[in-house]
Amino acid sequence: MITDEEYNYNIPCRGCETKEDVYEQHDAYRYSTGYWCDACYESNVYPYRRDRYFDASYAGERLEDDY
């Protein structure tokens, strides 16, 4: 069986094509945006929003009843 580390070892970064320290990144809604190294993820090369935490106030609905 192939482990996650062995599987991800040969996947290049979408920004700079390096194969070292590449991680799968996700947008605010947990959709995969591909494999990116930390340098590309933190720079302007990464074209997606970097929201780490989902905020329900921007989703169009709320769970609280404030009426």
What does this structure look like?
The structure is a single chain. With 67 residues, this protein is an alpha+beta fold. The chain has one domain (4-54). It is built from two helices and two strands. It has helices at 4-8, 38-42, and strands at 22-26, 32-37. Strands 1-2 form a two-stranded antiparallel ribbon. Strand 1 (22-26) and strand 2 (32-37) form a beta hairpin. The longest helix is centred in the first third of the chain and has 5 residues, at 4-8. The protein starts with a helix and ends in a 25-residue tail after the last helix. The mean pLDDT is 77.
Spell out the key features of this protein.
67 residues; alpha+beta; 15% helix
Strand content: 15-25%
Low-pLDDT segments: none
Write the element-wise H/E pattern from the N-terminal end onward.
HEEH
Q: Please tell me the total number of domains.
A: 1
How many E-type strands?
Answer: 2
- Please tell me what the overall shape is: elongated
